Amino acid sequence: MTDNDIWRLSASEIANRTRAGDLSVEDSITASITRMNIANPALNAVVEDLSAEALERARALDKARADGAAPGPLQGVPVTIKINVDQAGHASSNGVTALKDLIAPADAPLVANLQNAGAVVIGRTNTPEFSFRADTDNPLFGRTHNPWGKHISPGGSSGGAGAAVMAGIGALAHGNDIGGSLRFPAAANGAVTVKPGLGRVPAYNPSQSAERGILAQSMSVQGLLTRNAADLHLSMPTLIAPDPRDPFHVPMPWHGAPIEGPIKVAFTKNTFGYDLHPEVEAALDTARNALLDAGYIVEEVEPPNVFDAGRTGYRALMGEVWSLMKKDVDAAGSQTVRDIFAVYFQEFPPFLETELLQMMAKRTYYARKWSLFLEQYPLVLTPFLPQPFFKPDRDTEGAEGVHEVLGCAVYSYAINYMGLPAGCVPSRLADLPQGPQPINVQIVARRWREDLAVDACAAIESRVGRMCDLLWQKME
């Protein structure tokens, strides 16, 4: 492998080589920066280039290693951080022009955890305004494009992260997810991710002036987008390291106890009246067959009502947004995002006042139903979206557009509402009239068992291949 090809290495390969002394951190980071300079101008995925400080940090890590310091588990792995999370000395703008000078006084827990493990931040990635769209565009930095082509949205709100990691800009990309913001970009770009469950990754922004609403706290999680499942097993133990600034973080190990015998997987194609596209059905069948081939027991059976949980959960979240966030959107948001929020409130009529409190309480009812179901089936294989990923700006096209983008995505936000973990992995490359695009499926897991979801993602990936390899052939 030449120096020009180092960027193609997975996070696991980079860490193995740097820890063994076969690759310097400086060479790893230099290669990633070179790739960023080549790929990013067409994508606008990274909107703050941190090359200079990344190289300075890389040299410091190499010097410390030469002086006898032990290498970290993510030694020399290039990462990107989403612009809605604090990184000391940089703006946590959240895609909002009014926040462009909100400079973080210190690192958020996940940034500290990654850097303490030897990772190097090479840039900060784009997000839509307020990180509240499933597409990525804003007046401050502009539109992010999908590396598969401009016929597909890059997803959101971690669209910059998904586009960057799949284009080879960094081996790991940080993102977060309140209703699908890790899984939407994974599905759009063909990346692999796991949405952690409630309490799994410590979260806190030192720049914040007030605490978030209770549903925002309980539905939103921090995570990573990767090009292969093995990199999640490598990196997530670092991400979940405890931090006292998150008093509700649960310090459990990444790997849980082994499950005796073959793992049972519940499998559903139910899309609750929304049309199931043949390419999505084919992706589901491929994933099911891959799991069967890997030794899982897969049974077609309906889990507890996802549609009811998802719609209730998102209407509750919209009630909290209406009460706590709407005035900020009205004051600082563009006309585009204000119009989108107006349609959100139509698609998901907000629960308010006493009814909001009742629906927040009902969250436990749905979670209990699923916990009991997951005792019998530790994993559930589901669609992520019923249709292939939508085009850019589809959510600006009124009620019909928002319905296609978010209204039908009940398998996404239902899982946030119940605080469960869920993996998202590509299992098919669809050849559609508008162009090729990946199709991802979702794998829900028992509470605290993100590792089981990642294992299943790896089993699917081992039989269908890495989507990044096909993308890079196309990009070349």
Automatic annotation (TrEMBL):
InterPro entries: Amidase_dom (IPR023631), AS_sf (IPR036928)
Record has Hydrolase as a keyword: yes
Gene3D superfamilies reported for this sequence: Amidase signature (AS) domain (3.90.1300.10)
GO molecular function, one term: hydrolase activity
Record bears the keyword Hydrolase: yes
Keywords carried by this UniProt record: Hydrolase
Signal sequence coordinates: none
Ranges where the Amidase domain occurs: 28-451
Cross-referenced PANTHER family: AMIDASE-RELATED-RELATED (PTHR46072), GENERAL AMIDASE-C (PTHR46072:SF5)
Name of the molecule in the record: Amidase
Protein source organism: Parasedimentitalea huanghaiensis
